[in-house]
Amino acid sequence: MVRLPVEERTVELPEGVTASYEGGVLTVKGPRGELRRNLAHAGVEIKVSDGKVIVRREWAGKRERSMIGTVAAHIKNMALGVSRGFTYKLKIVSSHFPITVKVSDGKVHIENFIGERRPRTAKIVGNAQVKVEGEDVIVQGISLEDVSQTAANIQQATKIRKKDPRVFLDGIYIYEKTVGGQA
User: Taking a C-beta distance cutoff of 8 angstroms, is the pair 149, 174 a contact?
Assistant: First the structure.
């Protein structure tokens, strides 16, 4: 196994975004809000200086190098989220029965899906906001993990079992993922 003397990645923070690292917790602040993430378990050194976050490790093997890349990607996503935000758009598709989608109490309620009497529900994760606009469901927020998991929960709630998926295309499907948007 090849070990390199020093492996490091530098993440440039966008303008208006600041970061601090104390006690294993990275805090990133920007115009849209603040995100915190515990990175103590990663086994890497994190230094914040002059609008940059440096992730490094001495004598890194294959697993340590992959962890450096993972932590750097998390930091980049946090910086993008607090500066621009994330938006996922889902399309309501119904050919057999008209689907009604409502948002309340931290859940998305999907009614009359393929004629079912009981509504299906999907959990809204974290601080993601969900809006229903006609045939579109829009999920927005500053945390990529919260937004993507909420969109996945909505899509998974309308998964059809024990029927041919080529015939029963009804459901709610993700069709667009963007950085930025209104929020």
Answer: no
